Amino acid sequence: MRIIVGITGGIAAYKAPELVRQLKKRGHEVRCAATAHALEFVTRPTLETVSEAPLYCDLFAGNAHGTEHISLKDWAELLVVAPATANIIGKAASGIADDALSTLLLAMAPERVLLAPAMNSQMWAHPAVQRNLQQLKAWGMRTVGPAEGALACGTNGPGRMAEPTEIADAVANGERKAVGGKWLVTAGPTYEKIDSVRFIGNYSSGKMGFALAEALAEAGADVELVSGPTHLTVSHPRIRRTDVESAREMYAAATALWPTCQGAILSAAVADYRPATQADHKLKKQGSDGMTLELVQNPDILATLGSSKQTGQRLVGFALETNDELQNAEKKLQRKNLDYIVLNSLRDAGAGFGVDTNKVTILSADGSRTESPLMSKREIARLIVQEVT
Ligand code: C5P
Predict the structure, then answer these.
(1) Fewer CB atoms inside 10 Å of the end CB: C or N, the chain?
(2) What is the full DSSP assignment across 238-301?
(3) What are the pLDDT digits (tens) for 114-171?
(4) Measuring from atom 19 of ligand 1, which residue has the nearest CA?
(5) Is residue 286 a part of any domain in this protein?
(6) Euclidean distance between CA atoms 212 and 206, whole angstroms
(7) Total domains present in the chain
(8) What's the confidence (pLDDT) of residue 64?
């Protein structure tokens, strides 16, 4: 991998050359970037010697246009900031780019950043630092450490930078599982037409399904996203989007794509019923009596894909349950011939329709269970992709 080790001004900077050496020993190509404060602790010749590359620490030196941060971010597959001081963490969380390293950090996709925080325990415990780190993690940055132990300030506690070996291991573990082939994702609600201006719908926003499509694409898959009506947009070039409105349209699109797919994650909130007839004009109010709408059942897309599943194909469904959650989800897993079912319970505050966060339990056909904390839907999506692929 091509890695930039970014060094900021904490005493643990003295361990950075050792980290560079270990990463190179493991076969990575390494370049270093440092803040001015970091160079109070570790010297340019040391970093240039161990990395065998010029150090990046000045936005303009050697490049009158000041665009080296862009060419470096294009070059690098990963930026490891070690040590990451409270200062760089705060700047990154606020989008501040006022020197070479913070500018590079802002240019890098958050998923390609690993932070090894190091600071005094009290600074580490400060709500500002914790809030900033949570923000960075929610955007996709990973962290390693800090450990507990003797600190340079003479105290003991959390704040010690993870050892170079541990950071190098985190680099290796973080090389997320690549996902090959084509994956189908359904997302959003369906609209079941009553007449030319009315429909039966639901509150699904499509956020979970879109996050899943993005996570699969980021992991390397080609994604066929079949979406009900939403205002969301996709940007990843490996996502092909088909917009549908009704359950029957979603059924047609999904069943046509399924035989060509390696796997499918069906997160759409599909209406179980649709009006038996759909008027092609606006229905008029009649008299002063009520009105009865006759409903007929929609096809179950998930069950249909399950019944035609071939060896090697993975099928993942969602379950939104309000009572006997685990039991119901397990039954559904078996009945629909799924490999995994993702259960979200409406009992958990912050989980479910519309919101940006979710909390799920992933049940697999072999009986294993993974429970997530309350996380952003983006993070949940990454977790699901890692579990089910
Ligand atoms: O049976 P239930 O509707 O609770 O199952 C939910 C799961 O089934 C979700 O993954 C949803 O996308 C899928 N589903 C479907 N077609 C339907 C109804 C639900 O694909 N008609």
Answers:
(1) N
(2) TEEEEE--SHHHHHHHHHHHGGG-SEEEE--B--SEEESS--SSPPPP-TTS-----EEEPP-H
(3) 999 999 999 999 999 999 988 898 788 999 999 888 888 788 888 999 999 889 888 8
(4) 270
(5) no
(6) 10
(7) 2
(8) 56
Q: Which residue's alpha carbon is nearest to atom 4 within ligand 1?
A: 319
Residue-level pLDDT at 2: 94
Distance 301 CA to ligand 1 centre (A): 7
Instruction: Please give the Cα distance from 23 to 82 (Å, whole number).
Output: 13
Residue 316 CA: which ligand 1 atom is closest? 10
The catalytic residues are 153
Q: Which domain holds residue 195?
A: 182-278+291-388
Give me ligand 1 centre to Cα 303, in Å. 8
User: What is the position in ligand 1's atom list of the atom closest to the CA of 321?
Assistant: 4
- Mutating to test ligand 1, I would choose from 190, 270, 323, 343 the residue with most ligand atoms within 8 A of its C-beta, which is 270
* Pair of tokens at residue 193: 């037409």
For ligand 1, what atom is nearest to the CA of residue 302? Answer: 20
The answer to which of 122-126, 128-132, 222-226, 355-359 has the lowest mean pLDDT is: 355-359
In a domain, 146, yes or no: yes
187 and 151 share a domain? no
If asked whether residues 192 and 154 sit together in one domain, one would say no
CA 366 to ligand 1 center in whole angstroms: 21
CATH number (domain holding residue 254): 3.40.50.10300
